[in-house]
Amino acid sequence: MENYRAIFFVLSSLVCFVGKQASAAQHAVGGSQGWDESTDFSSWASAQKFKVGDQLVFKYSSGLHSVVELGSESAYKSCDLGSSLDSMSTGNDVVKLGKPGTRFFACGTAGHCGHGMKVKITVDSGSAASTPASPSTSSSSSSSSSSSSDAVQSVVGSMALLAGVLSLSLLMPQLV
Ligand SMILES: [Cu+2]
C-alpha cells in the first residue's frame, strides 16, 4: 500500500517539473549541425519559436568561429561586424533572450558571415498571438505581457500538484 503514496508523489512532482521545463527552452543554434558555415540558419530559425526567457546556445569549435551580435538589420544584411554589440568565442556560448524583439548574430571569422554564417532571431513576447513583422526598427513593444505564459505554466503546475494531493488524501483512509 505504501506503493500508491510513492507513485502519486512521483507523478505530481514529475508534472510540476515538466511544467517548469516547458516555460523556458534552450535552442541549440543550427540544430544538430550547430554553428557552422554549412548550416542553413534561416530555415532552422523559421522552424523555431523563440520566447522571452529562452536561451540560445552556439556550439562550435573554438578558434574556428565566433559569435558576434550585431546592432541593426542593415549591419546584419551587409555583414558589417564593426558595429558589434557583443562578441563571444568560447565554443559554447549561451545568449539569454531577455525581451521581445529581433536580434542579429554573425560569425566573426573573416568571410564566414558573407557565406551565410549569420542568423536573425525574432523573440516573441510569450503570448500565443504572433507578432506581425514590422519594418520599423523602433522597439515600442511593451514587455508587460512577457510573463503571461509563465503564469499559465505555474497555474497548470499548481493544479496538477493539487490533483496529486487530492488523490493522495482520498487514498489515505485505505492506506492508514
Ligand atoms: Cu565561422
Summarize this structure as a short list of keywords or feature phrases:
single chain; 176 residues; alpha/beta; Immunoglobulin-like; 5-stranded mixed beta sheet; 3-stranded mixed beta sheet; 4 helices; 8 strands; 21% strand; globular; binds copper (II) ion
Morphology: globular
Q: Could you tell me the number of beta strands?
A: 8
Helix vs. strand class: alpha/beta
Radius of gyration: 22 Å
Protein name: Phytocyanin domain-containing protein
Region (Disordered): 126-147
Signal peptide: 1-24
Keywords: Copper, Electron transport, Glycoprotein, Metal-binding, Signal, Transport
What can you tell me about this protein's structure?
The structure is a single chain. By secondary structure, the protein is an alpha/beta fold. The chain has a domain at 22-132 and 139-149: Immunoglobulin-like (Sandwich). 35% of the residues lie in helices and 21% in strands. The protein has helices at 2-23, 41-46, 73-78, 148-175; strands spanning 26-28, 50-51, 55-59, 67-70, 84-88, 92-96, 101-106, 118-124. Strands 2-8-7-4-5 form a 5-stranded mixed sheet. Strands 1-3-6 form a 3-stranded mixed sheet, with no helix packed on it. Helix 1 (2-23) runs antiparallel to helix 4. The chain is globular and about 60 Å long. Mean pLDDT is 77; it is low at 128-149. The structure holds copper (II) ion. Copper (II) ion binds next to loops. InterPro entries: Cupredoxin, Phytocyanin-like, Phytocyanin_dom. Residues 1-24 form the signal peptide. Keywords: Copper, Electron transport, Glycoprotein, Metal-binding, Signal, Transport.
